Amino acid sequence: MSTAKERVLDYGRALHIPSGTAEGGMMRVIAGGLVAAGIAVSGALAGVGTAGGEPIPSGTYQGTTTVPAGELIWKGKTFQEGTVVNNFTFGLTGLAGTTSQDGNGNTVIDYSPSGLGFLTDRISPNGDGTYTGAVYVGGNQVGSFGLAR
User: Fold this and answer.
1) Model pTM above 0.85
2) Residue 30 and residue 149: Cα distance in Å, rounded?
3) What distance in Å separates the CA atoms of residue 74 and residue 4, rounded to the nearest whole number?
4) Cα 133 to chain center, whole Å?
5) What is the predicted pLDDT for the residue at 120?
6) Any residues with CB less than 8 A from the CB of 37 and at least 6 apart, and which?
């Protein structure tokens, strides 16, 4: 079985964006611009987690965001076996990352396999199957969002 990082890299190859190429670099610049604009709203408003920890989400979740016009571009996230991909308008996907849990029951999303090591998300379960999240750039929260089935 492949590791989460290998699955993220396989995803990049499936998009025909070879690592270390001009196209791969352009994809990172575009993604960085989205984050800087506050549109890549895939992070977590770190709330109080459960002591026992919730399982990492699985499947596709629809997203909502407080970023002005953010929902015109960002549609949610799809989680699968330790990886996550953000879903965008017109069926486009991107900003792949790996998932783990912190000690408070929150899911942490690391985008360094996509070349975006400065970007992380943190999502907290709400107890009703939904999640509250925030996106962090360099450790600073830049946006918030919600996820629901």
Assistant:
1) no
2) 28
3) 23
4) 10
5) 96
6) none
